[in-house]
Design a protein that fits this description.
Blueprint (H helix, E strand, L loop, with lengths): L1 E4 L16 H9 L21 E5 L4 H12 L4 E9 L6 E5 L2 E3 L7 E3 L7 E9 L3 E8 L6 H8 L25 E10 L2 E6 L4 H8 L1
Parallel strand pairs: 2-9
Antiparallel strand pairs: 1-2, 3-8, 3-9, 4-7, 5-6, 7-8, 9-10
Length: 208
């Protein structure tokens, strides 16, 4: 199934949280057998708590490995939109910078030559004097990839205080201006595409 994850919700449980997650919803609603020691039944990719948008979740154990392979081999088309502080110096481009855990803050990722390959393509869709709306295409899928890359460009995602942005009162407190808005993939020789509109607070920020 493909679902639209709300901001503020975890994709799967963590060691220090007992709240309801997307994984719990899948297990409870679809009677998924609980076999994964990491409590990630049905979860083949994740979105950060503060990120909203499309996730594909697998309800059939027999096809789980197929989707894992599709993500690993970069055959899932994932597109995001983000509003950033400032704007990149070019209308479009590719950020190819390796990422590793931050040495100063273990909750973050940072650009580091010893890190894993991370590639993000971007295009400016719209801009104001202070902000820009970007469309982003993930070539790789590292943890916090978009957030870390945009911080490195000195254009952090609006309200992403972990990655250097200011608090923006027009954005819900447990959200940042980052949305997974498009998913495309092939399964059983059929092509599927899913796309959603941007959240209301995206529109209001760009129209201010």
């Amino acid at each position: 199934m493909v679902l639209n994850k709300p901001y503020g919700m975890l994709s799967h449980p963590t060691s220090n949280s007992k709240e309801i997650t997307i994984r719990d919803f899948l297990v409870n609603e679809f009677n998924l057998p609980i076999k994964d020691d990491n409590q990630r039944e049905g979860i083949v990719h994740r979105l950060d708590r503060v990120t909203s948008g499309l996730m594909v979740c697998v309800l059939d154990e027999n096809i789980f490995a197929y989707f894992q392979s599709q993500f690993k081999n970069r055959l899932i088309n994932k597109k995001y939109r983000a509003i950033v502080e400032g704007y990149p110096h070019t209308k479009s481009g590719e950020i190819n910078l390796p990422l590793a855990k931050s040495k100063k803050n273990r909750r973050k990722r940072e650009v580091n030559k010893t890190g894993r390959e991370a590639i993000t393509k971007f295009e400016i869709v719209n801009r104001t004097e202070e902000k820009a709306l970007l469309e982003l295409d993930l070539v790789t899928g590292r943890n916090h990839q978009i957030r870390a890359h945009l911080e490195y460009l000195k254009t952090p995602i609006v309200n992403d205080q972990l990655y250097g942005a200011k608090r923006d009162k027009n954005v819900p407190e447990n959200a940042i201006c980052l949305q997974s808005y498009y998913l495309g993939f092939t399964v059983n020789n059929e092509d599927y595409e899913f796309e959603i509109d941007m959240p209301d607070y995206f529109s209001s920020i760009m129209n201010m």
